[in-house]
Amino acid sequence: MEDLILKRNPTRKHPLLGLTVLVVEDSKFASDAMRLMCLRSGARIRRADCLCSARKHLKVYRPSVVIIDVGLPDGSGLELIKDLHAARPRVNVLLGMSGDDAQQEATTNAGADGFVAKPLVNLAYFQTTILSHLDSSAQVTGLQEVGSQSIEPDQIAYQDDMSHAATLLEAQQDDTSLEYVTQFLRSVATSAGDMRLEKAAKNLSRATSQGYVPRSIVREVLGMLQHRMDQTAAF
């Protein structure tokens, strides 16, 4: 297994310098937010968009930080958290992630060291969440003040997520696939602060849980997705 943990020499400007972060996330928009945060913090980033891809990656590389989204296309991220928590050697920092705060307890119970809440917009929050779980000897004294500095992911990534969701929604064949695309939409909308789409996704989720999804709701959501794909900005 190739070890990508570099010699730690963090600075106040780049407090995560020397760390490699594996982000297991199916949304391109959320992944781009992570990419920007790692870049500005000095960390290297690798991404897996599903459990299968993450497991293949972990057979070859050993990241120092793993951040796992709970909702993934081929299963729950909680499965991978449990496996990595039990593995030896264990990764230095193991974090769960979701736009649903109710998942925080579940990730902790699965073995995560902490929780990253979506939307991912605040650089200081990202840095301190990771640093709080590192050994004090691996940290720099006094971080550069970043205040409420925010991150703005590429809107093209958001449009890519909209296109992906539309394809899944049009092709959905059973309750399981509909449940996944619904949670994917809610997560992406939360990450982007798209309240109208988030509300529509919640309505779709509610109908799914009741066992009957009116075609009118599906058409409404598809129309919203198409509108966002046609815009130069997400909303």
Automatic annotation (TrEMBL):
Transmembrane helix is among the record's keywords: no
PROSITE patterns (UniProt xref): RESPONSE_REGULATORY
SUPFAM superfamilies: CheY-like
Gene3D superfamilies (alphabetical): 3.40.50.2300
Entry-annotated residues carrying 4-aspartylphosphate: 69
Keywords: Phosphoprotein
Transmembrane portions of the chain: none
Cited Pfam families: Response_reg (PF00072)
Source organism, top-level taxon: Bacteria
GO biological process: phosphorelay signal transduction system
Domain Response regulatory: 20-133
Entry-linked PANTHER family: RESPONSE REGULATORY DOMAIN-CONTAINING PROTEIN, STRESS RESPONSE REGULATOR PROTEIN 1
Protein name, per record: KDP operon transcriptional regulatory protein KdpE
Organism: Roseovarius albus
